[in-house]
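Exercise 7. Given the encoded structure of a 162-residue chain, write a plausible sequence.
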């Protein structure tokens, strides 16, 4: 499936705007399951909410777990290369890396997720990487990407606990 243009897949083409976020959430959940290994658990989430008082940091903080807040927002050129470079490469457990068939499924699902995100986030949508300050545990390693699409603030959290 390498190189397949998932944005042309009929279910993506026919998906309504209200259906796509839930499709992304389901795809992220399956990716979590596929990348699960001993001492390696992924947490992939997609949250959204309104832009609060025109302030990105306040809006993103509202999407974070209770007690956590935005520490640093770094403007990104585009969200696509951030997601493409992280999924799945940044989260592959060593036990899975040498297996061609499972890795093919993981890569295809990551491409599928990116195609779905492209339906809710234009390539030109303002995007940021987010560093989080949290009094307790957040993640061992993570990439948080905030995207402003229209009047909605989105937060894609890609984290791993090891």
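Solution.
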């Amino acid at each position: 499936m390498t190189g397949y243009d998932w944005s042309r897949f009929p279910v993506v083409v026919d998906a309504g705007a209200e259906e796509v976020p839930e499709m992304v959430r389901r795809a992220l959940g399956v990716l979590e399951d596929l990348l699960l290994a001993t001492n390696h658990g992924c947490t992939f989430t997609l949250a959204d909410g309104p832009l609060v008082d025109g302030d990105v940091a306040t809006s993103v903080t509202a999407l974070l777990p209770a007690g956590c807040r935005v520490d640093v927002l770094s403007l990104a050129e585009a969200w696509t290369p951030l997601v493409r470079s992280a999924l799945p490469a940044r989260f592959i457990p060593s036990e899975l890396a040498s297996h061609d068939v499972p890795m093919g499924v993981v890569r295809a699902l990551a491409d599928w997720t990116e195609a779905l995100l492209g339906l809710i986030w234009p390539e030109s949508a303002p995007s940021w990487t987010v560093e989080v300050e949290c009094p307790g545990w957040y993640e061992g390693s993570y990439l948080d990407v905030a995207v402003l699409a229209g009047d909605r603030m989105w937060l894609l959290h890609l984290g791993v606990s090891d």
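Remark. Helices lie at 10-14, 20-34, 56-61, 79-86, 94-97, 100-120. Students should compare their own answers with the one above.
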